[in-house]
Amino acid sequence: MNVRAHSHPPAPHRPRGDTHRDRTPPVDAVVVGGGPAGLSAALVLGRARQRVLVLDAGRPANANTPAVGGLLAQSRMAPFDLRRAGRDQLAGHPTVEVRDGEVLDVSAESGGGFAVRTDGGAVRARALVLAHGLRYDPPSLPGIEPLWGRSVFHCPFCDGWEVRDLSIGVHGNGPEAARSALVVSGWSDDVVLLTDGPARLGDEAEALARAGVRVREERVRELVGSAGGLERIELEGGAPEHSDALFVRTDRGQPNGLAEALDCTLSDGGTIVADSVGHTGVPGVYAAGDAATERLRSVANAIGSGSRVAQAVALELLSSAPRRRSPAPLSHA
After folding, report:
1. How many other C-beta atoms can be found within 10 angstroms of the C-beta atom of residue 146?
2. Out of 118-127, 129-138, 296-305, least confident range
3. What's the CA gap between 184 and 154, in Å, rounded?
4. 212 in helix, strand or coil?
5. Which range has the worst mean pLDDT, 10-14, 50-54, 223-227, 249-253?
6. Smallest Cα–Cα separation from 261: which of 37, 104, 57?
7. Distance CA 256, CA 308 (A)
8. 124-175 confidence digits (pLDDT tens)
């Protein structure tokens, strides 16, 4: 199996028997992704005295979000501050290294495990944890870019509290969009569903009416706001809709080609299909966080997923190799 996740020049040829991977013992796990799920997985594995390398490409899906909410014992924290705090915590575990870098290709080794080539060198790993999140692409609504992550969102459980009791729009069509609008109505009594064309709501139309959710079918012409704040939604052939926030449906997909090239199964929603402990069905390959979560994605859920998956990885690793009472720090590998 050979994976080429990004387009880069090939690595220089090394004579057989004199490769870096021949001289270097494998780490126990490579965690792809340095977000909440990946750092949480690394923490559990590090506490289990496993040698772990975390590779972080530095492109979090929530980079435009000013702050993350809904975390127990935490006030709202900027995404990069959350990552920095996680890295600081991992620094106290000598068998864990967090490295800025990307996976260029992976090959399964005949005796088990993987050879992982990164833009910073090569490493061998007994297990892989794919925790690289999802790609969230907002709809192509004119004016959305400066508002994205500030007053235009995709997850009411992540941002609904911050816009409670304000005027909220929901963009989408069909029964699923109607159900989303019903969910959002739990945060505000002033909710409008913008179907951007003739509504196709099926049996949900009655439920919307009972909940007091208005429906507007005019085409959306432009989102208008300033300093990241939405002010109004211009509609074709109708009066503008004054809204303080808007929830939209995103196009989702894997941020790289690793999962598909490793023969992991992808769901219709673009997530990695895995069991309750993150095993993908491919020996040695696990998935955690948004990359493998079909519904109810949040930072809190990603942290929990990383912890749960890492426990399963640790159990497999510890039961298949002699116990090391004092493993060498990873930097000495």
Report:
1. 17
2. 296-305
3. 11
4. coil
5. 10-14
6. 104
7. 23
8. 999 999 999 988 899 999 999 999 999 999 999 989 999 999 999 999 999 9
Q: Which residues of 227-254 are buried (b: 16+ CB within 10 A; e: fewer)?
A: eeebebbbbeeeeebebbbbbbbbebeb
Q: What is the DSSP letter of 331?
A: G
| Residue 141 phi, psi dihedral angles, 5° rounding | -95, 125
CA distances from 19 to 13, 22, 29, 61, 122 (A): 9, 5, 20, 35, 9
* Res. 37: pLDDT tops 80: yes
Q: Alpha-carbon dihedral of residues 280, 56, 299, 296, nearest 10 degrees? A: -30
Q: Where do the domains of the chain lie, and which CATH numbers do they carry?
A: 2-135+251-332 (3.50.50.60), 139-247 (3.50.50.60)
* Residues 6+ positions from 191 with CB-CB distance below 8 Å: 168, 169, 170, 181, 184, 185, 211, 212, 213, 214
CA distance 307 to 311: 6
Q: Rounded distance, CA 76 to CA 188, Å?
A: 21
pTM of the model: 0.82
203: phi then psi, degrees, rounded to nearest 5: -75, -5
Residue 2, pLDDT score: 52
pLDDT score at 168? 98
pLDDT for position 299: 84
53, 99 contact by CB (below 8 A):
yes
Distance CA 43, CA 293 (A): 20
Task: Please tell me the distance from the alpha carbon of residue 58 to that of residue 63, in angstroms, as a whole number.
Answer: 9
Per-residue pLDDT band for 13 (boundaries 50, 70, 90) equals very low
Amino acid at 281: G
When pLDDT is averaged across residues 22-37 and rounded to a whole number, the result is: 85
Cα separation of 118 and 11, whole Å?
Answer: 10
